[in-house]
Design brief:
Blueprint: E1 2-5, E2 8-11, H1 14-40, H2 45-51, H3 58-66, H4 77-114, H5 118-125, H6 129-143, H7 151-161, H8 165-176, H9 188-209, H10 222-233, H11 239-250, E3 260-262, E4 268-272, E5 278-282, H12 286-289, E6 294-297, H13 300-318, E7 330-338, H14 346-349, E8 351-360
Antiparallel strand pairs: 1-8, 2-6, 2-8, 3-7, 4-5, 5-6, 7-8
Length: 362
């Protein structure tokens, strides 16, 4: 089964849109921002970077504490669950990237330590260059699997498996010469250039690893304004501080709140109004915005899919819920705001969008 996500527009009276916007922008998004901030300052962050993952339940436990804060109370239960899931996803993705960068850094640092000149290899193993070349030829002939295309990987593995300085020198000779036995004299300038390129790669990787942890969305633009004022009235202490100010001022801030995920098909209830138009409501939301159901607007193909969601829900109801929810086509949904243009209240300028995800047999 393949999983497909589509989108359609949701419409509702202005008051309903206002209440939903305020829930998402003034409560849920600040909660997510604070969760991200808490994780960035967590004492175990470096350990998480090494492991490439965050312990199960960490974000949930932080959220349990924060949700008692007056700023974040009075949200539907699904909003809290959505915030936890989103922050977990953001951090898992970032930590996975951090771990990948660490492996790349270790690989480049290792290669830099191996990237020695012919003279250095000769001095290190106390053999002549011709002896090193003969040993390199023997390694290519006897110690490598010709069916394996990754000759360099085999050479690195062989390097790790031996402590013999002579054999290691021969392996380095092969690796720095494209896994071949070079006959021409070595060009010191080319070798120096290769070393410098590797050093630059290392510097860039270190810079990425020392970069900021995931940041939240500043919907008010206050952080940008504060940075502008600081940059205009103060002299940066060093180049790093100047760069951090520049990064903030050149970054286009998000003006829409984080989406809300309804991860179960039981969280959405499909219906029709007196004119037969399809609509939808979301579990737990009525208490906060009233009983209004959101009207669905889409093309014919989209509406046929929503009709299917409605029909399957009705069949499940008529069977007194004897049918498993796992058999329904709909898997999950997300409510999000799509950035619009113009002046006015954000719930009028921006459009409310529904992203349902459903399964299709292939």
């Amino acid at each position: 089964m393949s999983i497909i996500t589509i989108q359609c527009r949701l419409t509702a009276p202005e008051e309903t849109r206002r209440q939903l916007w305020q829930l998402m922008a003034e409560k849920n998004t600040p909660l997510i921002n604070n969760l991200l901030k808490e994780l960035a300052a967590h004492p175990d962050l470096e350990t998480w970077k090494m492991k490439g993952t965050i312990p199960l339940g960490t974000v949930k436990n932080l959220c349990q504490v924060l949700k008692t804060n007056p700023q974040y109370v009075a949200q539907p239960g699904r909003f809290y669950s959505s915030a936890i899931s989103l922050v977990e996803y953001i951090y898992k993705s970032w930590l996975k990237l951090q771990r990948s960068l660490m492996y790349q850094l270790q690989g480049q640092q290792r290669w830099l330590s191996m990237l020695k000149s012919d003279d250095e290899l000769v001095a290190e193993c106390d053999r002549t260059l011709e002896e090193i070349k003969l040993q390199a030829t023997q390694i290519l002939s006897n110690d490598l699997n010709e069916e394996d295309r990754s000759i360099s990987s085999q050479l690195f593995n062989l390097y790790d498996d031996t402590e013999d300085t002579f054999i290691r020198s021969a392996i380095i000779f092969l690796l720095k010469n494209g896994c071949k036995v070079r006959q021409k004299p070595e060009d010191p300038k080319k070798l120096a250039k290769r070393r410098r390129k590797t050093e630059i790669k290392i510097e860039r990787l270190i810079k990425k690893l020392n970069g900021k942890a995931p940041q939240g969305r500043d919907l008010t633009g206050q952080k940008w304004l504060n940075t502008l004022f600081t940059a205009a009235t103060q002299v940066p202490q060093d180049e790093a501080q100047a760069k951090s100010w520049q990064d903030i001022l050149l970054t286009e801030s998000k003006s829409i709140p984080y989406p809300i995920a309804y991860e179960s098909n039981e969280d959405t209830k499909w219906g029709k109004n007196e004119k037969g138009r399809l609509n939808v409501k979301f579990n737990g939301l009525e208490k906060f915005i009233g009983k209004y159901t959101f009207q669905i607007y889409g093309n014919k193909r989209q509406l046929s899919l929503f009709q299917r969601f409605f029909d399957e829900q009705e069949v499940k109801k008529s069977s007194k819920n004897n049918h498993s929810g796992a058999l329904l086509a709909l898997r999950s949904s997300r409510i999000a705001w799509q950035e619009g243009q113009g002046q006015g209240k954000p719930w009028n300028v921006n459009r409310l969008i529904l992203y349902p995800t459903f399964g299709r047999l292939t």
